[in-house]
Design a protein that fits this description.
mainly alpha, 6% strand, globular, two-stranded parallel ribbon, 6 helices
Length: 205
């Protein structure tokens, strides 16, 4: 058997049978090719798992800074949301679930109309900010639930609650559920506070 010209192999090797002649040169590249995509997929999965806690801790630090700023500039805002969540937890869940379903329908509608596609990033950003602020109230609510018999300041209650939620989000697989629930409660309590008719009675510190 005679092969004219050069022969190259990527992701494998060249087997030269007896009696076969290669007219020029042959080169073998043993680097992983397309057939090794499954190995790369497993590697990227574990890489993501290892970086997940880092991102979540970083987000918690940013949330702590933002929450402390809000408590300093507007001391009644987050306590008002936490009180609303304490008084009407079921309504907060309904508002949160309804908002999530509504947001999905709105995004699909905007995508179908094509003209509304540029509005999708703006809507997504609004939802993210709203959920973030609401999640700060959820953290304060958790801290207040633990500090019922302790003389803790609002800042201490908030930081304790945020720490507990952050630790829970670091649990593999279960942490994703915690993130979803916190964001759902946060989004729901913001809407309940903004659109609800009854004003919450803020308990004294």
């Amino acid at each position: 058997m005679q092969v004219e010209g050069d022969v190259y192999s990527f992701g494998g090797k060249i087997v030269k049978e007896e009696g076969a002649n290669i007219g020029s040169r042959y080169t073998t590249d043993d680097r992983p090719g397309m057939m090794d995509s499954s190995n790369r997929g497993r590697g990227s999965f574990f890489y993501t798992i290892s970086l997940g806690p880092i991102f979540r801790i970083g987000n918690a630090i940013l949330a702590a800074i933002l929450g402390l700023i809000i408590l300093h500039t507007n001391p009644q805002f987050l306590p008002s949301l936490a009180t609303k969540l304490r008084q009407h937890p079921s309504l907060a869940v309904l508002w949160g679930m309804g908002a999530i379903v509504g947001i999905i329908f709105v995004i699909v509608f905007l995508a179908i109309t094509l003209i509304g596609i540029p509005l999708i990033p703006l809507l997504s950003l609004t939802v993210i900010i709203t959920s973030l602020v609401g999640s700060l109230a959820v953290a304060l609510f958790v801290g207040q639930s633990l500090a019922s018999n302790r003389n803790w300041s609002l800042q201490q209650q908030f930081l304790v609650g945020l720490t507990i939620l952050t630790v829970l989000t670091l649990i593999p697989f279960f942490g994703s559920l915690i993130i979803f629930l916190v964001n759902m409660f946060g989004l729901g309590v913001i809407l309940l506070w903004k659109l609800g008719r009854e004003k919450p009675q803020i308990a004294p510190e």
